[in-house]
Specification:
693 residues, alpha/beta, N-terminal domain of TfIIb, Rossmann fold, Dimethylsulfoxide Reductase, domain 2, 4 domains, 6-stranded mixed sheet, 6-stranded mixed barrel, 23 helices, 27 strands, binds ligand MGD, binds molybdenum atom
Length: 693
């Protein structure tokens, strides 16, 4: 019998689409749009549609697996797997203490229930955990310092903007639903500007594409701020009433003349002036900064510099006027609500006092002493592919005694495991999820029985705890009793705090989060130490050691002379990080990895379309196919995020483990490389020209 459920996509993606899933004979058979989500009314992307394949993929891991002596894996029973893992857990705890075990979880599956995993480790007596984040915390912290919160106007409000700047964001691939509202604004006459070293599908829709050198955006923003001041385009009455530090800020940016900014960013003076003129004159403006740009060593200061443009022109707290970075208002009971949870100093639980930086995973793992790390447990993440400096991560993994990975597929990380436990998918356990872009709280119900012998993490942990000798009543202080009904009871209990959110209604459709502000900051109250918008932030200096004012720092300092090209590793439309690329439906469109090289850099290196090339630096190398591009900025090379070692290499073979200037983010993107042709191609035709000439 066919049944239709309302659900939502739990991938780490802005859109967090609602959709309707059709189920028949315990299989996902169809996926339809869900019109009740105003942010995602037209339906889900190709990746979402591919759940029909992914849920039942022939490559899915369906049973516990144990490494054999030949380097492959054999099926084992749950009893044997639990027996072996609990034996190791006992041994390490007795001999070295619980902190000899590293608990690593990342962003593979969103939802509150996943956070229960940490409870097991609390029961175990603690563990070494992770702090920081691979994704967005430099920007979160920058905005928190300036405005006191992380929220933005509802997605459909972009329709009200007259000027939209996509600054280092490519929503046509990474937030496709946002393009609906951008297009509506354009139909009403809005101007669209894209600032990106690449010509992207988003920039195909733009009136103006500006291509700065990577990592120099703060200088561009400060240059525009300088021109706004020179041209008398600052909203003085707004600034006087609501802003702290204006005079000092203006003083500090006097050196950012258009000529100086051109020298730093390689953006022509005329473009800088046009940009400043638009920002000064066209209102309301919505500035949409991406996350890629803040994964530089100067990422936090860059976001503060961009945000200053909204502040100076009073584009805050009004329809169509917004700094559209992240909206955490729908995380009603996620830890995400409080970005501070990324900070080790905020973790008050002594059991987790020892933690390792996400950005420095490999290096930090190797450094741990008293006790040294003996074991890692990985779930919802693929650190071998996704964390920086893959070779060091691999070294650290291989130095351990014992590795457990909970996974759906045989990823690069799973391949390193001693035991792989089969992971649930989004249709196999009920959960509640928020979104960092749309304002909805959503129920993601269990709609099928788990495939094969799959068990959700919460059940795996329950079994482990029993085997470790804890009594059921002890365990149940931390974990729900196995069974999806118990998860639902637990969630219903949590929801009681929010009378606006009814379970029955959530089963049908998403609900706007209680208290959500359609127009963020419309009351012009700011939760900062001064109660004002802090252009100048003492906390920024005290907490992170950066300048109190937004500044530009060269993120490549010390590295740029050795390798001449800058590696960009942006996201691509048919993957979410390292997920989806292994599915047949996706492979039809993306059959093989390649790197994009600008025509002039290719000519200088005698590389032609289709050549095998090597991309390398001191940290590693990978080989791939070259695709030449007229529109890519000279000096940049692109190798997409999320490709696997098994497919030829991840960009993180080349990236460096380094934290961002604030927020304990990961500065993957200050990454310099060289590219070289590795195979002669008989039909050499060199293409001259390109727009960078
Ligand atoms: N399809 C798809 N969608 C996704 C994801 C995915 O993997 N796939 N991941 C989700 C997640 S977790 C995230 S964090 C977001 C990220 O999505 P976005 O915020 O869009 O970030 P990126 O793709 O990392 O980078 C966006 C653009 O910034 C440009 N860029 C790189 N360096 C610079 C620079 O120095 N200056 C400027 N101005 N531009 C620069 C890149 O060329 C790229 O086009 O996407 C989410 N959505
Ligand atoms: N070079 C470079 N590296 C990057 C980036 C970049 O731009 N450039 N972007 C960074 C960013 S923004 C992010 S957010 C990270 C993302 O990096 P990760 O958080 O590691 O995310 P994914 O690659 O999506 O891997 C998640 C894994 O979780 C598994 N999974 C899915 N659901 C479940 C589940 O319910 N249980 C378990 N146990 N497993 C599950 C999936 O199969 C997948 O293998 O990557 C970062 N890495
Ligand atoms: Mo991310």
């Amino acid at each position: 019998m066919k049944k239709i459920f309302s659900t939502a996509c739990p991938r780490n993606c802005y859109s967090t689409c609602s959709f309707k899933v059709h189920v028949e004979n315990n299989r996902i058979i169809n996926i339809d749009p869900h019109p009740d989500n105003k942010s995602t009314p037209e339906g889900i992307c190709l990746k979402g549609l591919s759940y029909v394949e992914r849920a039942h993929s022939k490559d899915r891991i369906l049973f516990p697996l144990k490494r054999n002596l030949r380097g492959g894996f054999d099926r084992v029973s749950w009893d044997d797997a639990i027996q072996e893992i609990s034996g190791k857990l006992k041994e390490y705890k007795n001999e070295f203490g619980p902190k000899s075990v590293l608990y690593y979880a990342a962003s593979g599956m969103a939802g509150y229930v996943n956070e229960l995993s940490e409870k097991f480790w609390e029961l175990y007596g603690g563990a070494t955990t992770m702090f920081g984040n691979l994704c967005w915390p430099a920007g979160l912290e920058a905005i928190h310092l300036t405005l006191g919160d992380n929220k933005h106007n509802v997605p459909w409000d972009i329709e009200n903007a007259k000027l939209i700047i996509l600054w280092g964001k490519n929503p046509a691939e990474t937030n496709i639903q946002q393009m609906i509202f951008i297009e509506k604004a354009q139909q009403k006459g809005a101007k669209l500007i894209v600032i990106d070293p690449r010509r992207t599908p988003s920039s195909e829709r733009a009136d103006l594409l500006i291509q700065p050198k990577p990592g120099t955006d703060a200088a561009l923003a400060l240059g525009i701020a300088h021109l706004l001041f020179e041209n008398n385009q600052i909203d003085k009455s707004f600034v006087d009433q609501y802003v702290l530090g204006f005079d000092k800020f203006v003083e500090s940016i006097s050196m950012y003349t258009p000529e100086k900014v051109t020298e730093i960013t390689d953006v022509p003076v005329d473009f800088i002036k046009e940009l400043a003129n638009d920002v000064g004159k066209i209102k309301p403006m919505t500035l949409v900064p991406g996350y890629g740009m803040q994964r530089f060593a100067n990422g936090g200061q860059t976001i503060r510099s961009l945000l200053a443009l909204n502040v100076l022109t009073a584009n805050i707290g009004k329809p169509g006027a917004c700094f559209h970075y992240a909206n955490l208002q729908s995380y009603v009971f996620d830890v995400l609500k409080e970005p501070m949870s990324y900070y080790p100093e905020m973790n008050s639980n002594p059991k987790f006092r020892r933690s390792v930086s996400m950005a420095l995973l490999g290096e930090d793992m190797l450094l741990q002493k008293n006790p040294e790390l003996k074991m890692i447990w990985v779930e919802r993440g693929n650190p071998v592919t996704q964390n920086p400096d893959t070779n060091t991560v691999l070294k650290a993994f291989r130095k351990l005694d014992f590795r457990v990975v909970v996974e759906q597929f045989l990823t690069d990380t799973a391949k390193e495991a001693d035991i792989i436990l089969p992971a649930k998918n989004m249709f196999e356990q009920t959960d509640i999820i928020g979104s960092y872009w749309n304002p909805y709280v959503q129920l993601k119900p269990k709609v099928v029985e788990p495939a094969g012998e799959v068990k959700p993490e919460s059940e795996i942990y329950y079994l482990l705890a029993q085997k470790l000798g804890y009594s059921n009543s002890e365990i149940e202080k931390y974990l729900p009793v196995p069974g999806n009904e118990n998860i639902e009871t637990h969630l219903k209990e949590k929801l009681k705090t929010f009378p606006e959110l009814s379970w029955d209604s959530l089963k049908e459709r998403p609900a706007i989060a209680p208290g959500n502000e359609e127009v963020a900051y419309s009351n012009l109250k700011f939760n900062t130490p001064s109660g004002k918008i802090e252009l100048r932030s003492e906390v920024a200096n005290k907490k992170w050691g950066v300048n109190e004012l937004p500044t530009y720092e060269d993120p490549y300092k010390g590295e740029k002379d050795m390798y001449p090209l800058k590696l960009l590793s942006p996201n691509t439309k048919n993957r979410i990080h390292s997920q989806f690329g292994n599915l047949d439906v996706i492979r039809q469109f993306d059959p093989e990895p390649y790197a994009v090289v600008s025509i002039r850099d290719a000519n200088e290196r005698r590389i032609i379309e289709g050549d095998r090339i090597k991309i390398y630096n001191d940290r590693g190398e990978l080989t791939t196919k070259a695709k030449l591009d007229f529109s890519l900025k000279k000096g940049c090379v692109v190798y997409y995020n999320g490709l696997w070692l098994q497919e030829g290499g991840t960009s993180n073979l080349l990236s460096k483990g380094r934290e961002t200037d604030m927020g304990h983010g990961t500065a993957f993107h200050d990454c310099c490389v060289e590219v070289e042709r590795i195979k002669d191609n008989p039909s050499q035709v060199f293409v001259k020209g390109g727009i960078n000439e």
